[in-house]
TrEMBL record:
SUPFAM superfamilies, per database record: PLP-dependent transferases
Gene3D superfamilies: Aspartate Aminotransferase, domain 1, Type I PLP-dependent aspartate aminotransferase-like (Major domain)
Family the UniProt entry places it in: Belongs to the DegT/DnrJ/EryC1 family.
Pfam families per the UniProt record, alphabetical: DegT_DnrJ_EryC1
Domain of life: Bacteria
Species for this entry: Pontibacter aquaedesilientis
Keywords noted in UniProt: Aminotransferase, Pyridoxal phosphate, Transferase
Span of the signal peptide: none
Record's protein name: Aminotransferase class V-fold PLP-dependent enzyme
Gene Ontology MF, one: transaminase activity
C-alpha cells in the first residue's frame, strides 16, 4: 500500500465554514431563488421530473439529450415517461445544429443542453433554434449557479432551467428549478440534513489542518468502498442515477443555511481560483475550458491526462481528491456510438476550485499535479 503523507484534504465539493451559524442573513438572493416561479426540491433530478409535466411534456414525447451527461438527469426524464434521443457534443461541448436537425421528428418536444462545469453554452442561440421549431429548451445549470451569459443569468434562457445549490455552496442538498409553468411546490416532509452538514464541516476543517486532513484521506476510501459494497448487495448498482422521492423538499438545514451562506462574491472567487490554476496548469486543460469566459462560475478545474486512474490515486496521496468527471454514463447510452463523449469520460479529471479554498490550498493542488505529472512522465494530451 502506498504511504499517505500528512496533507490538507481538498475535495471537489464546497465545504461549510464553522462560523456560518453566526452570520447575518443576506438580503441578496442569487438567481433563480429571487424569482417567483422558482421551486426548490431536495435534488435537481426531482425538480426535472416534476417540471416536465408542468410544461406539458407527455409520455412518449422525445427529448434530444447530450451523450455527455451525468445520468441522473436522463433517469429523471425516463421516469417522467419521456423518450431520450442522444446527440454528440462537438469540440466546444455544444450540439451540432446539423446533427440535431437529422434527429428531429414529430415526436421531438424538447432540446436538453448542459452548461458543463459552470461554463455557459450559447443558450440564446439554442432558444431561438428551439423557438423556430416549436420545441422547448431545457437548460441544465446544475453546475452553473451564478453563471451569466451577456449579463443574463444562465438558466433564464430556456423554458426550464435547473440548478444544484449544493454544488456551489456547502449545503446538504437543494435542487432549484425555474420554468415558464412551474410545478407545484414539494409536499413531502423535510429531513434534517444534519449528518451531511457535519460532513461538510469536517471537509472544511480538513482543508485547514494537516492532522485532520491525514485521517480524512485515510477514511475517505474506506467510506467509498463500504458504500459500493452496500449498494452492490442491495442491488443498487446505479444508485447514483436514482431519482428518489419526487415530492422531497430541501432539508431543514439547507433552508436555514441558504440565506447565511449565499454571497455575491462567490462567482468572483471561483473565477480567481480558476485563473490561478489555469496560469500554472493551463497546458493540461481541455480546449473547451482553456479560456475562462467573463460570466463563467466554475464548478471544478478540468485537466486531461494519460492513465487517469493512477493519476487520481497519486493525487489523493498528496491530499487532492479529484474525480473522473462523469465516468459512468446512463445505462441507456450506446457508448461506442459517441466516441467524443467516451474520450471525455475516460480522460478528463476534475480538481477543486470552490470559493472556500485558500491560496495555500491552490498551491497544494498545483504542486501535487506537477509532481504526479513528472513522476508518471505524463505529457499533456492534445485538446479535442
Amino acid at each position: 500500500m502506498r504511504k499517505l503523507y500528512p496533507a490538507r484534504s481538498l475535495l471537489i465539493w464546497p465545504t461549510l465554514p464553522l462560523d456560518v451559524y453566526f452570520r447575518s442573513n443576506s438580503v441578496w438572493k442569487p438567481f433563480p431563488l429571487d424569482q417567483a416561479n422558482c421551486r426548490v426540491f431536495s435534488l435537481a433530478r426531482q425538480a426535472i421530473w416534476n417540471t416536465c409535466a408542468a410544461l406539458g411534456l407527455h409520455p412518449n414525447d422525445t427529448v434530444l439529450v447530450p451523450a455527455y451527461h451525468h445520468g441522473s438527469e436522463i433517469e429523471a426524464l425516463l421516469q417522467a415517461g419521456l423518450q431520450v434521443r442522444y446527440y454528440e457534443v462537438n469540440q466546444n461541448l455544444e450540439p451540432e445544429p446539423e446533427e440535431l436537425q437529422s434527429l428531429m421528428s414529430t415526436d421531438v418536444r424538447a432540446l436538453y443542453i448542459i452548461h458543463y462545469l459552470g461554463f455557459p453554452q450559447d443558450a440564446a442561440f439554442w432558444r431561438q433554434w428551439c423557438d423556430n421549431r416549436g420545441i422547448l429548451l431545457i437548460e441544465d445549470a446544475a453546475q452553473a449557479l451564478l453563471a451569466t451569459l451577456n449579463d443574463k443569468p444562465v438558466g433564464s434562457f430556456g423554458h426550464m432551467g435547473v440548478f444544484c445549490l449544493y454544488k456551489t455552496y456547502g449545503l446538504p442538498d437543494g435542487g432549484a428549478v425555474i420554468a415558464d409553468f412551474p410545478p407545484p411546490r414539494p409536499t413531502g416532509q423535510s429531513n434534517s440534513g444534519s449528518w451531511r452538514v457535519f460532513k461538510r464541516h469536517i471537509n472544511w476543517l480538513a482543508t485547514r489542518r494537516k492532522e485532520l486532513g491525514y485521517f480524512h484521506l485515510m477514511l475517505k476510501p474506506i467510506q467509498t468502498n463500504l458504500n459500493r459494497f452496500w449498494n452492490r448487495i442491495n442491488k443498487r448498482i446505479h444508485k447514483e442515477f436514482e431519482v428518489g422521492d419526487v415530492s422531497s423538499p430541501p432539508t431543514r438545514m439547507t433552508k436555514f443555511l441558504i440565506p447565511k451562506i449565499v454571497d455575491e462574491k462567490t462567482a468572483d472567487r471561483r473565477r480567481e481560483n480558476y485563473r490561478f490554476l489555469l496560469k500554472h496548469l493551463g497546458d493540461m486543460v481541455p480546449a473547451p475550458f482553456a479560456f475562462l469566459p467573463e460570466g463563467a462560475s466554475p464548478f471544478a478545474f478540468p485537466i486531461e491526462v494519460n492513465e487517469p486512474r493512477d493519476f487520481l490515486a497519486r493525487l489523493r496521496l498528496k491530499g487532492v481528491m479529484g474525480l473522473l468527471f462523469w465516468l459512468n454514463p446512463h445505462p441507456s447510452l450506446p457508448v461506442d456510438e459517441f466516441p467524443r463523449s467516451r474520450l471525455l469520460r475516460e480522460g478528463v479529471l476534475a480538481l477543486p476550485v470552490h470559493q472556500e479554498l485558500s491560496f495555500e490550498n491552490l498551491q497544494q493542488i498545483v504542486d501535487s499535479v506537477k509532481e504526479v505529472q513528472v513522476n508518471l512522465a505524463v505529457p499533456a494530451i492534445p485538446a479535442f
